[in-house]
Amino acid sequence: MSPSRLKRMLSTRPLVGGVLLWTLVLSVLHASLNVRWDGVVNELRPESERKLDVAYIPVT
Questions:
Q1: Confidence class for position 36, pLDDT limits 50, 70, 90
Q2: 19-37: b or e for each residue (b if 16 or more CB lie within 10 Å)?
């Protein structure tokens, strides 16, 4: 194996990129599976348009 190829294989740039990509994928999966997005959206609405949930049952 040539020295330049060995140096390129041992470079930390691909490793750091892979770790960052893996962290991003896990973060997106966590947010999509574990966050109640309807509750987040409800909190962003004006108070007059919010839905009130009591014991997970919508109250009108």
A1: confident
A2: eeeeeeeeeeeeeeeeeee
